[in-house]
Inverse folding.
């Protein structure tokens, strides 16, 4: 495998600074790229503009730099790549695999509950397909992928199956368990699913290493890759740092700002989450080098 083409990436959303959790994802993706002698790219995922914080992108890049990680080519910003998302949506419209949807979130949730489901903080209502056959006089709000249409047209297995390099065999019936997901939102913004799939392919990403919180998006992204005729990268979802309430660490549940006066301490913490031993080295560069060696024996190379 060594020497074969490898392109990896770290794709932070600039909704705040890097914290201990996002540093784990950054470090994992960087180590995997280095262990494969591959390229590592940084892509700022700033399509969800209402959630973006001014200056957070530059701050994240500086934090990465302080931790010895720099994009192998100039970082990219999704907000400058909307023409690519437009073209992908046009391709899917052409195929007849997307449709405009006029339902509000409330309507979707009401329909879901009336089908006998419970809605909790951790479940999203599965779209009942109301607008598949037309808008019923409502104005178009979002664009959705008709998942079953893609599966049928391309004769894909009903369940998406994939291998995660850490978590093993995975499967999901996207049509049933997720439903027709949004590619362009009611507020006109591009959905994460579309932007990430288009960008990973456009940038030639072969290996995705990211936090386990994103694991549940993978099957959707694979369906979308197939619909757009794009290759599927390999996946490794890295362990999460949990906050005080045992949920994914976030600013809301106790994530501290990284102490960039002492990047080695921060990196050592991140390395331990990844199952790597703390480094005895006193330099960031040497510590990273040691972990690259250790990484190769920790996670299977595929
Ligand atoms: N932008 C996403 C996030 O910060 C990561 C996307 C990805 O790695 O696929 O959660």
């Amino acid at each position: 495998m060594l020497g074969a083409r490898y392109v990896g990436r770290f794709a932070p959303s600039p909704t705040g600074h890097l914290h201990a959790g996002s540093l784990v994802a950054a470090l994992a993706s960087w180590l995997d790229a280095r262990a494969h002698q591959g390229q590592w790219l940084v892509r700022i995922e700033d399509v969800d503009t209402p959630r973006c914080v001014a200056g957070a992108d530059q701050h994240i890049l500086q934090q990465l730099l302080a931790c010895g990680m720099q994009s192998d080519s100039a970082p990219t910003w999704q907000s400058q790549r909307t023409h690519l998302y437009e073209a992908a949506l046009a391709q899917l419209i052409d195929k007849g695999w997307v449709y405009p949807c006029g339902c509000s979130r409330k309507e979707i949730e009401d329909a879901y509950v009336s089908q006998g489901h419970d809605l909790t903080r951790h479940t999203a209502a599965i779209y009942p397909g109301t607008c598949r056959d037309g808008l019923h006089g409502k104005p178009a709000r979002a664009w959705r992928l008709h998942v079953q249409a893609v599966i049928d047209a391309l004769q894909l297995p009903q369940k998406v199956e994939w291998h995660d390099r850490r978590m093993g065999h995975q499967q999901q019936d996207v049509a049933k368990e997720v439903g027709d997901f949004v590619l362009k939102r009611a507020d006109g913004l591009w959905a994460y699913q579309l932007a990430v799939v288009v960008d990973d392919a456009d940038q030639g990403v072969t290996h995705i290493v990211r936090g386990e919180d994103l694991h549940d998006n993978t099957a959707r992204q694979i369906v979308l890759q197939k619909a757009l005729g794009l290759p599927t990268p390999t996946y490794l979802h890295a362990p999460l740092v949990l906050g005080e309430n045992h949920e994914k660490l976030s600013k809301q549940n106790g994530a501290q700002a990284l102490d960039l006066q002492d990047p080695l301490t921060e990196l050592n913490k991140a390395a331990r989450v990844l199952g790597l031993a703390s480094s005895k080295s006193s330099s960031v560069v040497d510590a990273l080098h040691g972990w690259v060696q250790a990484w190769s024996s920790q996670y299977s190379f595929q």
Observations:
- The CA atoms of residues 276 and 302 lie 20 Å apart.
- The mean pLDDT is 93.
- The first strand starts at residue 7 and ends at 10.
- The pocket of glutamic acid is lined by residues 11-13, 45, 196, 210, 214 (CB under 6 Å).
